[in-house]
Design goal:
Radius of gyration: 69 Å
Mean pLDDT: 72
Strand order of the largest sheet: 2-1-10-6-3-4
Largest sheet: 6 strands, mixed
Number of strands: 14
Distance between the termini: 225 Å
Number of helices: 4
Shape: elongated
Strand content: 15-25%
Structural class: alpha+beta
Order of helices and strands: HHEEEEEEEEEEEEHHEE
Helix content: 10-25%
Length: about 325
Amino acid sequence: MGGSMMNSGASDKNAMDKSASMMNQGANQKNAMDMSSGSSSAIVDISVTVISSYKGGNAPMEQISQPTMAKGMTHMVTVGGDAGLVFSPSTINAAPGDMVHFTFMSQNHTLTQSTFPKPCVKMQGGVDSGFLPNLNNTISPPPTYMFQVKDMKPSWFYCKQKKSAVHCGKGMTFSINPTADKTQAMFMQMAMQQNGTAADTMSMGGSSSMMMPSTSMAMPPPPASSPPPAASPPPPAPMPSAPAPAMPASPPPPAAAPPAAMPPAAAPAMPAPASPQNLAAAGTSMSQGTGTMNNGQCSCSCLCGVAAFPAGAGAGMWGGYSGAVAMS
């Protein structure tokens, strides 16, 4: 009987050992799974500590945490507003302990942390202010957001607004402590190239300041488009036709002979002056008249034969019956 009890005790001990071994094995398997999956709360280092968030106006100030170190200088950054879709300034150099104070102006923006290679994708476990609207800058005081910088590692941020336009794709980005190899200009350019259309989630294996592939690597050029088909050769130019032989010019017509000079017109013959002989030849008789002169008045009389007035009578004559008395 004693031997039986001893055997029973040994069996119970073996069972307990076996159970403990199985529990240890399960715990080891869980640890292995945790290590393989990674816990973001354990490995993500966002390089900043969020201090406060304020929605503006009569809203209460939300105190999120206390500064983790002595406060340094305060950097003031304006989000949006009259300057457009920008953070002003778009980059700062901040020492550990410095405070960064964001003032949100029109219209409706966020401060969302991303990574250098994916500027428009929210970083897992990173800072995100959420939307802090200020339509037409009507909220007074305006919304604010503030955090404290913990180290000198680069940090990258963007606005995730996509309603009216993809603000990140328009270049609305912000950086803290960029480097010569990873500049704010490169970060903004990649944001504009990606146009904010990359996936909204990504698997992170480290912090926002983890080493990323350098952007100095040449991006492969886009495939060249096939050249356009060669244009068909132009049709041959028509052969010029031979010019028609020139016809000899007709000789000009001979000039018309000038009209013959007209002989000068003959002067009209002057009738011979009347004389008693001419009158007698014309068959006219004339009787000698008588008369007296009294103070320039003539009183005379004559008797002429009845006959026709002789031709030419009176030409060059004077006195008496017109042209009847010869001048000599």
